[in-house]
Amino acid sequence: MTETPQAKEAPTLERRSDEDSNQYRRSIFSMEVTVSVVIGSARLKISDMLKLKKDGLISLSSKIDDPVELCAEGRVIARGELIEMEEIPGQLGLKLTEIVDINDAMED
After folding, report:
1. What percent of the chain has pLDDT over 70?
2. Are 77 and 71 in contact (CB under 8 A)?
3. Per-residue model confidence as pLDDT tens digits over 30-82
4. Residue 19 vs residues 6, 16, 25: alpha-carbon distances, Å
């Protein structure tokens, strides 16, 4: 089993400084970003999409044991495995197994 890379800590900023640039940088950390979990994908012709019916099946690109991807604004930021949350039976959660190097992701 491969080791999970450790996430780097967010940069610490000088909180006592009243400079406009420092206040701007700090405000970014309070912004919310919608994340999504991608379990697989498929390419369908529009004609096939129009034929979709309840109980129909679509074959995805991934296998049942493949890691899922955690994406923010369309970029993969981590990978993991789906789990059932203990606190809320039936509720899905994501156990992170890999953090993507953000510097590599920004070069794409």
Report:
1. 73
2. yes
3. 889 999 999 999 999 999 999 999 999 999 999 999 999 999 988 999 999 99
4. 32, 9, 10
Please report, to the nearest 10 degrees, the dihedral formed by the alpha carbons of residues 48, 50, 54, 60 taken in order: 40
The pTM assigned to this predicted structure is: 0.65
CA dist 43 and 108 (Å) reads 22
Measured between alpha carbons, how far is 81 from 69 in angstroms, rounded to an integer?
9
